[in-house]
Amino acid sequence: MSDMVRSVDVVRVRGGQRASEQDRAATEEPLEIRLHSRPFAVVMRTPGADRELAAGFLLAEGVIAGADDLGTIEYCTDEQPQSAPSTQSHGFSAVSARSAVASSNVVNVTLMDEPRVARALADRRQVTTNASCGMCGRLTIESLMVRLPPIDASWTIAAPVLLSMPPRLRAAQSAFDETGGLHAAGLFSPDGRLVDMAEDVGRHNAVDKVVGRMLLREQLPLSTHALCVSGRTSFEIVQKAAIAGVPVVAAVSAPSSLAIDLARASGVTLVGFVRDEGFNIYAHPQRIVTLG
């Protein structure tokens, strides 16, 4: 069975009848990300594409600016960190997470620039990120704002193509078929071709995995791609897309007000409620071509 899915015992109730059966659940485990063997963050995620997740996460955090800043990303053989963080977020401390972390759940990242590591560790307090909320441990929302030149991509996407993205993404979710509990993020070409996708218990993790994979392939910025995500669109997802240079972000559910504000400021076309035969455009509608 894939590491993304676990077998679990359940008591299933149907029509008032109880039966003990086995079911499938999406795996959620901590991934500790270290910088030069020093603790940096603990991310709750679905195992798989951990190197890509770490790369995408560090890009979104501003620790790296591109693939040239990366040295190596390797699983750790030594499970003991040099120092233990004390910050607790959402009732789950980094210390308690570390006690549950196996070597396959710890990655050590080396950067080409040693001073960049020192700045990253000095500027950031240790956090544990929840799978549902992304960067929960940040001190202020202002610290999340990354100053980027607005995206000015001029290509357009047809409304029928946009509407085809969620079902195409859903059809590629093999782990969701087993569990019903995983989010997805997919990169699409302007003609609706699914270029790459990832699944995770956290929608922002799925975005990091996709962006990180393209980063490791040295294919950023993603200025000729659209990003489609399952569920809602948060500030973090728009921020990750803007950092990666994605001009169009579409989701099957609603965006938050802050996601809308950031999309408008960063030049990202933001589309929500992409389902059935319609959608809402919240920012930069000129990139979506409709009839009539």
In short:
The chain is an alpha/beta fold. The protein has helices at residues 50-60, 94-99, 114-123, 159-171, 174-179, 203-216, 235-244, 257-266; strands at residues 5-14, 17-26, 29-35, 38-45, 70-75, 88-89, 92-93, 106-111, 127-129, 157-158, 183-188, 194-200, 226-229, 248-251, 269-275, 278-283, 288-289. The protein folds into 2 domains: 29-144, Ubiquitin-like (UB roll) (Roll); 157-289, Cytidine Deaminase, domain 2 (3-Layer(aba) Sandwich).
Descriptive account of the structure:
- With 292 residues, the protein is α/β, with parallel strands linked by helices.
- It has eight helices and 17 strands.
- Strands 12-11-13-14-15-16 form a six-stranded mixed sheet, with helices on both faces. It has a five-stranded mixed sheet with strand order 5-8-3-4-9. The chain has a two-stranded antiparallel sheet with strand order 1-2.
- Helix 1 (50-60) crosses helix 6 and helix 6 runs parallel beside helix 7.
- The N and C termini lie far apart (49 Å).
Radius of gyration: 19 Å
The biggest beta sheet reads: 6 strands, mixed
N/C terminus separation: 49 Å
Biggest sheet: strand arrangement:
12-11-13-14-15-16
CATH topology of the largest domain: Cytidine Deaminase, domain 2
